[in-house]
Each structure stands twice: as C-alpha cells, then as structure tokens.
Amino acid sequence: MFFHQRHFDAAIDRLHSEGRYRVFIDILRNKGAYPNARCFAGHNGPKPITVWCSNDYLAMGQHPKVIEAMEEALHDVGAGSGGTRNIGGNTHYHIQLEEELADLHGKEGALLFTSGYVSNDATLSTLAKILPGCVIFSDELNHASMIAGIRNSGAEKKVWRHNDLEHLEQLLSETDPEVPKLIAFESVYSMDGDVA
Ligand SMILES: Cc1ncc(COP(=O)(O)O)c(C=O)c1O
Q1: Which residues lie below 8 Å from residue 116, measured CB to CB, with a gap of 6+?
Q2: d(CA 41, ligand 1 centre) in Å
Q3: Where among 33, 50, 67 does a domain terminate?
Q4: pLDDT(103) > 70
Q5: In the prediction, which pLDDT does 119 show?
Q6: Does residue 168 sit in helix, strand or coil?
Q7: What pLDDT sits at residue 160?
Q8: How remote is the CA of residue 137 from the centroid of ligand 1, in Å?
Q9: What is the rounded average pLDDT for all residues in the chain?
Q10: Ligand 1 atom 10, closest CA
C-alpha cells in the first residue's frame, strides 16, 4: 500500500511541477443578471464575478420560458430521469428534443449526448469502426474530443497541417483510392477561434 502511494504522490507532484494541476472555480450564476455570477473560492463569502467563457451563449438557461418549462416539468415528473437510457428508458422530453433537432437540420433523426466531448468521441469512433479499413484525416488542431474518438476507433490516422488544404490533398493522394476515408475538422477552432 505504502509503495503504491509513492507513485500516486509522484504523479500529483509532476502535475504541480509541470503547471498542469487544475483547480476548477467554484461558482453559481445569478439568474436574470447574465453573465454575472458568485465565486465561492476563499473563506470570505461569495465574491461577485463576470463569466465570459460560458457555453450558454444566448443565456437561454435564464430565459423565462425555459425556467417556466423546467418548473412545470419538476412538478409533473420530479427531478432527474431516474437512470440512463439503458436503465430507465428514454425520457419523453428528450425524444421531443431529438425530433425537434432532426427537423431543424432536415435529418431523419437526432441523438442527444451528455456533452460535446462524448458526442465527438462516440461519433468518430463508431463511424470509423464500421467502415472497413477506414483512414481518418485529421486537422492538427482538432479538439481533444475528436482526437479521443479517432484513437478509440483504432483506425489509421493521417494528420494534416492546420487549415492547409494542399497538405490534406497530398495525404489523400498518397492513400489507396479504394479505402473509405473520413476527413475530420472543426467549423470553428475553439482555442484559436479561426474558421475551417
Ligand atoms: C470545438 C469543440 N469541440 C468539443 C468541445 C467539448 O464540448 P463539451 O465541453 O460539451 O464536452 C468543445 C468545448 O468545450 C469545443 O469547443
């Protein structure tokens, strides 16, 4: 036990020394005052802060119609779904949302995931596993979730220089025309903010 503990301590120390030890900020958002929030770090009570890096781009999480619908749902069916799809079945609201999303995009169907990370990982790994001998071409600045999906597919991967179409064409021309190919890139690159 003591022997193993040393390895865990060393791993944590490494994170500190490489500047990779993460502490996530402890906050609550203020309804009706987007993008203001309260930060609970420290011991002097909550401190007012502004959040500029939310995914709730349009503040829909605070829209009166959204709040009203959630209140109604809480009183009708309670909180939470009672389990994953595997265990508790599909929640009717989620089915309705999937139908709405499919309609919005003119598709046969839609599938909700718990986060962008999970959807990218699941989609890329599934597609490339199904296509026999698939080769994936990936922009070098793709999000970590896409890289995880590509790795989890087990498919051969070729990385092209960021936004360099000539490099992509060169890699494509070096690949057997008969094998299925999947070209993976972003619409907006989240770290640099540039467009594909
Ligand atoms: C381009 C891109 N892909 C994937 C993700 C991961 O999404 P999530 O934070 O919902 O897991 C993000 C953002 O966080 C992103 O900006």
Answers
A1: 143, 145
A2: 25
A3: 50
A4: yes
A5: 97
A6: helix
A7: 97
A8: 20
A9: 94
A10: 116
